[in-house]
Amino acid sequence: MSTSTVLLEKRSHVALLTLNRPQKLNALNYATNDRLIELLDQIETDESIQAVILTGAGERAFSAGGDIHEFASSIRDGAEVAVRDFVRRGQAMTARLESFPKPVIAAVNGLAYGGGCEITEAAHLAIASERALFAKPEINIGIPPTFGGTQRLPRLAGRKRALEYLLTGDPFGPDRACEMGIINRVVPHERLLDAAFELAGRITRHSPLASARILHAVTRGLNATISEGLQIESEQFARMATTRDVHEGLGAWIERRTPRYEGR
């Protein structure tokens, strides 16, 4: 196994990113957060990649959350250091995933605690193994979630359902996660990556430009009023209207053939 904290593998038009600290349950230390952002930066400019799948190495965990030993040291150095090194770094990572212009699919293969759950919340789509287990356990060590969990979970699940898990730290299974809107569906463990790549394939057959415009409109519009959101939607349509992909899509529909998108 490579010593890199995040592995990158390209399969056709899809990038597979694997959190690679299985001996630490893929805990998110600072190096892992930084490496994940670095790889996302590379993927964004790689026109051959149209979607991203993010999973965890090993059989036990997607990610057990932040590396407690590391951020405990930052906390001992004071609140200013801890916010700078731990909170802002983690929030930047989940915000990058949420606002990424290519679809990001979390393939949750095991424990998704704390930061692992927050990555799942931030990803555009998520599929979970039947072995997955989720939790917001930060309250057990006397802190609130710090990578966006107090904000994204209530938006996905509703205030009362989110607060139950934020205030108790109790774990919950993949069926409950699906019910709350954290994941899209649950699949047999051995089918997890196949299901994620199948979903990616159903997305990448379409125009990558149109996918980017949809992602932008949804991500920005969620925190806007309906009138502001409709303006965002109109702006994203206008950006697409002059592209070659629009003309190809329309032409293919009229001619009853499969479109050949160029991402231009």
Structure write-up:
- There is one protein chain.
- The protein has 264 residues and is an alpha/beta fold.
- Helix content is 50%, strand content 15%.
- The termini are far apart.
- Give the C-alpha Rg: 19 Å
> Which range does the strand content fall in?
15-25%
Shape: globular
What is the spatial order of strands in the main beta sheet? 1-2-3-5-7-9
Largest sheet, strands/sense/barrel: 6 strands, mixed
**Count, helices:** 11
User: In which range does the helix fraction lie?
Assistant: 40-55%
Unreliable parts? none
Number of strands: 9
Give the helix/strand class.
alpha/beta
Mean pLDDT: 95
Distance between the termini: 38 Å
Order of helices and strands: EEHEEHHEEHEEHHHEHHHH
Structure summary:
This protein is α/β, with parallel strands linked by helices. It has 11 helices and 9 strands.
Q: Any chance you could write out the topology, listing elements then pairs?
A:
Elements: E1 6-11, E2 14-19, H1 30-44, E3 51-56, E4 61-63, H2 68-76, H3 79-98, E5 104-108, E6 111-113, H4 115-122, E7 125-129, E8 133-135, H5 149-157, H6 159-168, H7 174-179, E9 185-187, H8 192-204, H9 208-221, H10 226-241, H11 244-255
Helix pairs in contact: 1-3, 2-3, 3-4, 4-5, 5-6, 9-10
